[in-house]
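Entry for the shared binder. Reason: the reviewer on the internal report wants the predicted structure included alongside the sequence.
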Amino acid sequence: MTFEWPLALIALVVVPVVVGLYVMRERRREDYAARFTTPTLLPNLVAAAPGWRRHLPLALLLVGLAAMVVGVARPHASVDVRREQATVIIAIDTSLSMKAQDVRPSRLGAAENAANAFVAELPKRFRVGVIGFSGRAYLALAPTENRELVLQALRSLHSGEGTALGDAVALGARLARQERASDGAVPPTAMLVLSDGAQMSGRTTPAAAALQATALHIPVYSVVIGTPDGVVNVPVAGGYQAQLRVPPSPDTLKTLAQATGGQFFTAPDQKRLRQIHERLGSRLGHRRESREITDLFAGGSAAFLLVGGALSSLWFRRVP
């Protein structure tokens, strides 16, 4: 929390001063009462002492006073505000290893299903683009608000050999550079990469692609899919097939996310993958903004002062 007029907080010193004066007054009142009676006889003279109720109204009044002083200082707090417009580029690895079925129905199928869940979490005015990449990166769908087209693009992704991860991120950066909001400004853009491995082909290295994304302020959120038990069947000579182990390789994805200011996630199964995408959808759909919250402190101050005054009048009213 920050304050526009922090010097006003000096007035908070009044609160401990009032507390000190109140404590001194209570002690003097008890000493004064002891001069005229024996303390052990007081229970016979007074039906019941106010106890904690005697102090509650003042406590409420002091809290209200403190809230009033903080309100005068014009406090500001960082709050989550829902974005109105933004662009999200989804890049999905469609390499041969994504056919592995260690994540059901397959790594590629799980990625597509989770991407659908992710898109459902985004605000309707967000533009979503889809990129597929195997031996090369290709544009499946330019950024659009049409969610049906996005779902069709996700279903149209096809497998191939190689993993051009750097090319996919570079293509996403070029798409972001072309985006414009309704007011002509460049909307904030983020990229989501789902893959099970490192760079295997392509012309752009992940490090070079990360520099391009960083220059455009595009954070890359990466999700590694798969388990160490993943295998795929590959054709060999004689018409036979052999099983090839394809454990995930998260290091490049992790470095890419860290270099661009994004975040890296592991998704060993379909349930975890859906949770990650739901959380990312919420995160990318909001932004942190500093807002003045003087009204909250003013309203709280008024409430405490009114309640404190009402309790004082109700419990300790004097009958003429």
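Summary line for the report: The longest helix spans residues 294-316.
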